[in-house]
Amino acid sequence: EMSTYLRDKIMDSLGTIFSQTQKCRAWLSDVGALIWACQPRDLKQAFMWTTPLGLIVRQPYRAASETHMFTPVGYTKISGSMLEPASAKQLSALAPNLIHSLDATHLAMTALEMTNQNKSMMAVHDSYWTHACDLPSLSRILREQFVDLYTHYDPLSEIRSQWEEQFYTDLRRHGVRLPEPPERGSLDLKEVLKSDYFFS
């Protein structure tokens, strides 16, 4: 009972503490639903985008099919995948997958710059590590790459542009123009360069 109370309080506070993040998530959700509604029912396409490094991200979520069969050892369930994208999963995964793809871009940019400076680096998801003697370099480089990425790349404007192209025919048929993304917040990205707790 107490954990449910705390969960609800935390979830309620997120919109206040991270208001810009919530606006971005809501925009992605609204735009995704708009695009989904414009596509013909039998020709739905999975959402795709290209990261700043050229990696094509395609959400693989498809509606699952199940068949129950009787075999000599009893009933068994055979699962497969149909061609139709799974609508709920396609839409709910947009924000997290976009963030994951941008985190992966930041990781790759950091690794490339470490390599350019002849420094070793390993990583798993958002855990980066290197030799102790190279930690100051890694700390500086990952901050520089983050600032570089988001100074020159506006994720929501870019994904809007890509989706307008990917879903052009469907949007045009319905006379729909995707709404502008929320304005960027007031964070001075250069402050990241001085932040002790940006990345640990």
Average predicted local confidence, pLDDT: 90
Number of beta strands: 6
Number of domains as seen in the coordinates = 1
Q: How many helices does DSSP assign?
A: 7
How far apart are the first and last residues' alpha carbons, in Å? 34 Å
Q: Describe the biggest sheet?
A: 2 strands, antiparallel
- The unreliable regions are none
**How much helix, percentage-wise, in residues?**
40-55%
Share of β-strand residues: 15-25%
Radius of gyration, taken over Cα atoms and rounded to an integer in Å: 21 Å
The helix/strand order is HHEEEEHHEEHHH
Structural class: alpha+beta
Give the neighbour order of strands across the main sheet: 1-2
> Which overall shape is indicated by the principal axes computed on the Cα atoms?
globular
Oligomer: single chain
GO biological process, one term: mitochondrial transcription
InterPro entries: DNA-dir_Rpol_C_phage-type (IPR046950), DNA-dir_Rpol_phage-type (IPR002092), DNA/RNA_pol_sf (IPR043502)
Domain DNA-directed RNA polymerase C-terminal: 2-171
Family: Belongs to the phage and mitochondrial RNA polymerase family.
Summary of the model, kept short:
With about 200 residues, the chain is of the alpha+beta class. Helices cover about 50% and strands about 15% of the residues.
